[in-house]
Every structure is written in C-alpha cells, then in structure tokens.
Amino acid sequence: MARFILTLIVGLALLTWAVSGVVQTTTREWFERDVTSRAQLVMTSARQSIADAWYAPTDLQRQLAAIARDERVIGVAACSADLTTRSSTPGFPDEFSCSAVGSRVRAAEVAAGGSSQTFRGWSATAALPTGRVYVTAMPVSAQGQVLGFAIMVHDLSYIERREEAAQTFLIIISAVLAVLAFGVPLLAAKSARSDWSRELRRLLHGGGKQKSEFQPILSDMRELLGRMASEREDAPGRWTAVRLKQTLNRYLHGEKVVILANREPYVHQYTADGKIEVQHPASGLVTALEPIMRACSGVWVAHGSGSADRDTVDGNDRVRVPPEEESYHIRRVWLSDEEQQGYYYGFANEGLWPLCHTAHARPVFRAGDWRQYRAVNQRFADVVCREVDSKDPIVLVQDYHFALAPEMIRERLPQATVIAFFHIPWPNSERMGICPWRNELLEGLLGSSILGFHTQLHCNNFLDSVDRFLETRRDREQNAVIMQGHRTLVRPYPISLEWPVHWVQSAPSVEECRAQVWRDLGLKPGALLGIGVDRLDYTKGVEERFQAVELLLERHPEFRGRFSFVQLAEPSRTKIERYQMLNDTVERLAERINLRFGAPDYKPIILLRSHHEPPEVFRFYRAADLCYVSSLHDGMNLVAKEFVAARTDMRGVLVLSEFTGAARELTEALIVNPYDLEGSSDALAAALMMPADEQQDRLRSMRSLLVQFNVYRWAGKMLVDAARLRNQERLAGRLAERANLGPALYS
Ligand code: F6P
C-alpha cells in the first residue's frame, strides 16, 4: 500500500513539473506578445506627439514622462538622428542609450530596405540585472523628415513574477487535487474496511442478523475455517467434552445438535407406590450418546416409553434433562400400540435385528410391519424437522430403527448435515438380499451425509450391498457413494465411552464395592466372581456363557464352591416370542448348572433378571475378578469397555468374544470364540489364575486406548468429516451455480 502511494506521489510530481513547464512557456509567450503589441501601440500613438514637441525640450520632457507613467514602462528617450540623447525620463537604463540602440536601429533599417519612410522600427528583449526588459525603438518624423527616434524600455520582470505565482498556484492546485483524488478514497476505504471488519467480527461471533452483502465473504471465511478445522481436528491430542463443543461451534456453526434415536436417555417410570423415578435404560447407544448431548446441548428426539413420560413433559412434549443439570431436551414422540408393534417389535426387532446379526434367528418380514416402520420413520423425521433451528442443522440419526429417516429429513431440509450411525453390524450383501425392502433401506440411509459403522467390515458389507442392489456411483478413494448427485461418506467410527466415565468417578472404592457385592450375593471371603452385563438378547451369547462356566467347573474342580458367575440381565423386547424363549432357556440353564455344581451356600450362576441402574452395574464391575462378554455377534459392545474403565485398581480380566467390534480394539483382553466352549472355559480359567502384574499390564494398555479413543473423539471425527463434506458441497454448489450446470457437476 505504502509503495502504491509513493508511486502515485512521484507520478503526480512529474506530471505537475511537465504541466508547469508547458504553462510557463505558454504564459510567457502570451505576456510577451501582449507587451510587445502594447509597446508598439503606445509608441505608434506617441510618435506624433513626440514629433510635435521635438523642438520644445520642456514639452518633449512632459510627453516622455506621460508615456512613462505606465507602471510597466521603465523609461522613454528621444534620440536625435546623430544618436545623441535629446531627452529621456529619469531612470532610463544606460544600457539602452541612444548611441547603443541607434546602431541597431540603423542596422534594422538597412535590413528593412533602407527607406526611413517604410521602416517601422526595431525591438528586442534583453536581460538587465533588475530583470528582463523589452526595448522598442521607432523613427520619429515630421513633414516627411526624419527627426530621430524614440526608445521605450518595457519592464518584463512582472511576467516572471506572474510565472512564479502561476507555478505556485499550479502546485497548490495539484496538491489539493492529489489529496482529493487519493486521500478521500483512502479514507473512505479505510473507514469501509473498519466497518466491514467490525461487522464481520460481529457476525463471526454469532451476533445479529446477517447482511446480504456479507454472505459471500462469510461463506468463504467458513470454508476456510472448515478447512482449518479439518486439519486442526485431525491433530493428535485428547478429545474432551470441551473440545467437542468447540469443534461443533467453530466449524459447523451449530448451536445445538438434534439426535434421533428410538431409546430415550432418561425414562420416567411410576414406582409401585405411585412415585416417579428416573431410569437410565440399558443401552449401549444411550451410554455413548448421552455424554455427547451433555457436551453439545440440543434436542434428543425419542420414543416416550416410560409409564410416567407423558406426565413429565411440557406442552411441547419436551423435558429438560439430565435431572440435576438440565442441559438439553428430550422431545418425546408417542407411539400407539399398533405403531410400536409394527415398527419396533415387528420390522426393527423381528426383521432387521436378526437380519443384521449372525445369531441364527430367522428374520421375519411382514408387509404390515414394514408399512408401520415407514410411517413411524416419517413421523419422527417430521418431528426432527420441526425441532431444528436452521435450514442447515446437524442431525445425528441413530441405528436400525431409523434407516429411512435420513432420506426423509433430507427431502425437507436439503442443506441439513445428516450423520447416520448404525450401531449394529451390516450383513453381507447375500444376506441383506433376503429383505424385501433392502433397496428402500439402502436408499434411506444414503440420504445421510455421513454413514458410520463400528468397523470397516460393516462398511464394506454396506458398500457391497449398494453395488449389488442400487444404481449409484462409487468414489473408492473417498469411500463414498453418489446417488442422484448426493454424496454419502461411508466410514468406520468405532464408538466408545466418555472419558473419564462419570459413573466411575462417583463410585465407591474397589474395596467397598467388593465388600458390598460380597454381602449382597452372600459370597464367602475367598470367593472368586465373574460378571456378565447384558440386555437379555439372543445375540449376547448368554447361554454359551453359562455353558462355558459349567465346563470350567467341570474341567477345573478347584473352582467349584469358589467361583460364581453373576449375570445382570435386563429383560428386553419381551413381547417377542424369541426373547421369551431366551428368558426361559437362560433361566433353566442357570438352574441346571446350579443344581449340578451348587451347594446350599454356593451358587455357580447368579442370575439377576431386572433393570440395574448404572451405579449398581459399576459396583459389580469394580468388585469382579473377571468380566465375560460372549456376544455371538455385536456391533461394538460397550460393556467390555465399561469394565475396563471401571477398573481404576488395574485388577480384573476381560474375556471377550471375537465377534464384537470391541475385540478389534481391546486386543489385550482374552479373546475367545464363544461357540468354542472348551476354549472359552480355558480362557475363564486363565483369567482366574492370571498374576496381578499381568492383569495390570493388560488393563493399563486397554485403558490407555480408551483415554484416546473416547466417545468425544468418535463424535468429533464424524463432525469434522461432516464439516469437510459441507465445505466441498458448498464449493461445488457455487461452482455449479456459476457455470449454471446444476448439481450434476458435483456428482
Ligand atoms: O445394539 C444396538 C442397540 O441399539 C443398542 O444401542 C441398544 O442397547 C439396543 O440395541 C437397543 O435396545 P432396545 O431395543 O432396548 O432399545
């Protein structure tokens, strides 16, 4: 900028100099021409009166004085033909005496043809120490006889003074013009810039209404920030609730997120004595997402399933939670029995659940269930669209209950960032192919911007299904599917726990937990305890787990009377026959094993079939010697991670099914195939005999992984990917708009 201004000043100075040269020459010529014509006019008109007074010295003197009265005339002289001075005014310059000028007059007369009749006179400019002068000499004659000549000396120095004044004036005018030409626009630009930066800062800090002229620059700034976000958020370092919130605010401009999930994080239930209690449901989804919601605030749209739910909402079916904190809302949606039957029990849990889990339960697909599933997805999608507070909100659609919702939300809010996460496995394409509505499910999920699974294998299965059943384009480099110009990134995001887990922080010491559990279960002082924590679901391998315990006791008599396995089993989906059967089977199996190896004061299997609130669950985790997670197929399984998180004392062993997503991360667990009862019972024995330092090494390693790969990182990574995608879409959209090509360009 300074350089630009300097160049302008130098340029202007040169221009002024050139113009002033031209002005000087021109004005000088004008003035001189003016003076000479005036002088000649004066001399011509004075000639006769000089001739008349030629012989009367006093009159002649008066005549000359009259001519010299003009302030620009320095002096006048009358010269005889013999070049002597006849009369002159006072101060007539000696340099132009009659003799000095006379010779030149003669020469000029000769040059003009030598005729005194036709000779008009001589003139010249000359420089005196006092300044430039103009000298005019003209013949004076009377009655055809030449008497002599008159000389008049005109002052020209005033022309120089005027030139100087004109130059000064020109410089001042140029300077004023320069100030006006450069200064005013500079000042205006400076003030506009400060207005803009003030306005921009206000908008970036989220204040007030956006002016339309700021839209393009704001979009550019956001793109830039988004790119910076992507780079910055990829940086190593621990993810926390605060970092997640910052990511959301800075790079996605989200004041809040909207989560759509079937299960609500807080259920209001009436107790037997008519009081209302708040329950935390047994759900991995809730365990993972509730801390996200506490960190980000917003709305969780869910089915209101508790007996006291309707009595605890406001006029908009909302309730503020968590109870003591009230940092976000649950927006409850009420479902009729028919809707629940068709959507939740029917298509979601008798169709999709067994379809996606390789747990040998036959999926049931009823057209009526599918219709309810579609209608309920639409109802929830409509509620989500009413709950958002902008046209480009961030919506997290959770799980297999809402496979159609992403597309439905996108139809109403095309600019929304929909992040869908499938918490259960996605089967291979052959298996998915048996679902009569596989195409609709795939298309529904492809309405999202990002579709997450726990593992790469599940992503691959999904992409294979898309390839097999839909006409789409694959971007293999980005792991994206493009369907009708819309792009969906399909990526693995292994879910996890908050860190630190707040239930652990508020839990009693390990010694207290152990003492309490020992007391509650009536265990002997030297007893060993194993634990399982699950919804009673056939995918969890509870039967195989009990059988492995039975085999352990069979093959290792030293543990009989000493080792007990406590199963916290939350009854789940009990309206479905398969779940009722499971309840019975598990109960009978526990009874049989207890009968076989139990004693009046010893129970090998302790089956606690009821809801357990998190503080109780964590007390068991902290008391146990081992935890056995024996899922036959599981997306992630957060029980495994909770057990590791609970063991702040670095004691306890995790025995983990290889068919869980968690087994890919918690590799220091004793990994087993739950169908292999011998292998599993060996692992249980190894766990019970594992030296303390090995337990510590394994736990330390697994805990360090959970510290880094916590649920804030899980959500943060998805949000950062979403921000990146949003930027790409904005840029591509703008490009397409400019080229008037429509979204096809992007695809
Ligand atoms: O495993 C998938 C999942 O959605 C879990 O997140 C959750 O624990 C469970 O299934 C759902 O259970 P429910 O049917 O009781 O909501």
Description:
The chain is an alpha/beta fold and 747 residues long. It folds into three domains: 28-161, Beta-Lactamase, CATH 3.30.450.20; 257-492, Glycogen Phosphorylase B (Rossmann fold); 520-709, Glycogen Phosphorylase B (Rossmann fold, 3-Layer(aba) Sandwich), CATH 3.40.50. It contains 22 helices and 23 strands. A ten-stranded mixed β-sheet has the order 10-11-9-6-12-13-14-17-16-15, with helices on both faces. It is rod-shaped, with a radius of gyration of 52 Å. It starts with a helix and ends in an 8-residue tail after the last helix. Residues 262-263, 283-285, 399, 423-424, 535, 572-573, 635 line the site of 6-O-phosphono-beta-D-fructofuranose.
Number of helices: 22
The main sheet orders its strands as 10-11-9-6-12-13-14-17-16-15
Radius of gyration: 52 Å
Identify the quaternary structure here.
single chain
Please outline what is shown here.
With 747 residues, this protein is α/β, with parallel strands linked by helices. Helix content is 50%, strand content 18%.
Blueprint of the fold:
Layout: H1 2-52, H2 57-67, E1 73-80, E2 85-88, H3 98-111, E3 122-128, E4 131-142, E5 145-155, H4 157-204, H5 215-233, H6 241-252, E6 257-260, E7 267-270, E8 276-279, H7 284-296, E9 298-303, E10 318-321, E11 328-333, H8 337-356, H9 367-387, E12 394-398, H10 405-412, E13 417-421, H11 429-432, H12 438-445, E14 450-453, H13 456-469, E15 473-475, E16 480-483, E17 486-492, H14 502-505, H15 510-521, E18 528-535, H16 542-555, E19 563-570, H17 577-597, E20 605-609, H18 614-623, E21 626-629, H19 638-646, E22 653-657, E23 670-672, H20 677-689, H21 692-708, H22 711-739
Parallel strand pairs: 6-9, 6-12, 9-11, 12-13, 13-14, 14-17, 18-19, 18-21, 19-20, 21-22, 22-23
Antiparallel strand pairs: 1-2, 1-5, 3-4, 4-5, 7-8, 10-11, 15-16, 16-17
